[in-house]
Design brief:
Blueprint (H helix, E strand, L loop, with lengths): L2 E7 L5 E4 L1 H7 L3 H4 L13 H14 L5 E8 L5 E13 L2 E10 L1 H7 L3 H12 L3 E7 L4 E5 L1 H6 L4 H5 L3 H4 L5 H9 L6 E9 L5 E13 L2 E10 L1 H13 L11 H18 L3 E8 L2 H8 L1 H18 L6 E6 L2 E7 L3 H18 L14 E8 L9 H17 L5 E3 L3
Parallel strand pairs: 14-15
Antiparallel strand pairs: 1-2, 1-5, 3-4, 4-5, 6-7, 6-10, 8-9, 9-10, 11-13, 11-14, 12-13
Length: about 400
């Protein structure tokens, strides 16, 4: 089964992120999915059902999350059953819908009516990061709670039953909690973020949804709390993902441009040299055409890893610039250092001995490189684009001279 994660922009209603499990199961690339909406992979759920049953309860705050079973449509036309949980949250300051889904096709095929399937669903619910409490406002103690509620905080059911809210609430004191509870009005719904302390003393970020209700004639706080510690970490990871090339897992063009600008200013301010190496895989199109895109992707990954490992000192940056082209940024490195690094990279890639089926110069995959440097003492270059062009010109000369070599820029 798959553990799939989707992020949907609440304004455009288009996918912005899918994890690898979701992409593998659906058969799409991330680029393809970012042009699509949920309806295109979920044709059995009508637009009205989506609004009434899922989106409206989340947007109004009636529910903290919505779960349902559906069928997802793969790129190849086949379908699979999915158990889905949807919740609305802010990521990087913008409203998004975060969807977590499990592929339950195998279980459905075996026997949808068996107790095993029911237990699996119950286990999935019980292990989800959502605790449900019924709290006595007078004592601040939970008189009913689900398994997740006490387990998430590391307590046994007996231990948890003895705790007051103030015993695990860390943001407010017991007196402040009691004061807040006393101000609740019947039927009022409140949502807020806070932190809980586990039995081991660990602090967890949580989102809490509370409503004052009446049960058997007495007031009770119906409280749902969701552990969002991992989601906060995921949000940070999502921000980092925007700067990483998904195939090679090194810096992408966006991160390079930003780092290049910062390093240019820093080098200019400190009057230190800044070198740039531009690298191209020799005869890569032929390699791709003969061996296929999967082999081409693997080759790109190995090349990227080797370049990144070769230029791994503090401040050095390796990025995928586009296609089979890579760049290496070397702060505080003069032309001699750039030459040395370019040759190290070239030799390290040659040492991989990746067979090339139709290279004009070698039986193995090789690279060509061009490098240039800006000297801020004499201000030999006026702009970042000029340094890039010089490295690119040097790369062109290296390729024209027979490839599998590194050339410096020369006027």
């Amino acid at each position: 089964s798959f553990n799939e994660v989707y992020v949907i922009d609440a304004e455009t209603f288009k996918f912005t992120y899918l994890n690898q499990s979701a992409l593998m199961n659906l058969g799409y690339s991330l680029t393809e999915m970012q042009t699509m909406t949920p309806h295109e992979i979920n044709p059995h759920l009508s637009r009205q059902q989506l609004i009434d049953q899922i989106l409206t309860p989340l947007i109004t705050g009636e529910k903290g999350f919505v779960t349902h079973e559906t069928r997802h449509l793969r790129k190849n036309g086949t379908e699979y059953d999915a158990q889905v949980r949807v919740q609305r949250m802010q990521l990087a300051g913008k409203p998004n819908f975060v969807v977590m889904a499990n592929d339950i096709s195998e279980a459905k095929k075996k026997d949808e009516e068996t107790q095993e399937a029911k237990d699996r669903y119950q286990t999935l619910f019980d292990l989800s990061p959502v605790g449900i409490l019924l709290i006595d406002p007078a004592t601040q103690k939970a008189f009913e709670f689900n398994h997740t509620a006490h387990q998430q905080l590391g307590y046994t059911a007996k231990e948890f039953a003895k705790l007051r809210v103030g015993d695990y609430e860390t943001i407010e004191t017991s007196e402040e909690v009691a004061s807040k509870i006393s101000q609740f009005k019947l039927g009022e719904k409140i949502s807020f973020a806070t932190q809980h302390k586990t039995k081991k003393g660990e602090i967890r970020d949580v989102r809490v949804f509370v409503q004052l209700v009446k049960l058997s004639g007495r007031p009770a706080l119906f409280s749902v709390f969701q552990d969002i510690t991992e989601l906060k970490q995921y949000e940070r990871a999502l921000e980092e993902y925007a700067y990483i090339d998904p195939l090679t897992q090194i810096a992408n063009r966006r991160q390079f441009d930003q780092t290049f600008e910062n390093e240019w200013r820093r080098s200019e301010r400190n009057h230190t040299p800044l070198s740039l190496i531009m690298i191209d895989i020799d005869f890569f199109k032929v390699y791709n055409d003969i061996l296929g895109h999967q082999a081409g992707d693997t080759c790109l990954q190995q090349i990227a890893k080797t370049i990144h490992t070769s230029a791994s000192r503090a401040g050095e940056l390796t990025a995928r610039y586009g296609g089979e082209e890579f760049v290496v940024l070397l702060p505080n490195n003069d032309i001699a250092s750039a030459e040395k690094m370019a040759e190290i990279i070239r030799h390290n890639i040659a040492a991989l001995k990746l067979p090339h089926p139709d290279s004009d110069i070698s039986n193995y995959v090789t690279i060509s490189a061009g490098y240039s440097v800006v000297d801020f003492v004499n201000k030999t270059i006026d702009s970042r684009s000029q340094l890039l062009k010089q490295a690119d010109d040097a790369l062109y000369k290296a390729k024209k001279a027979g490839r599998n070599r590194a050339y410096p820029y020369k006027n």
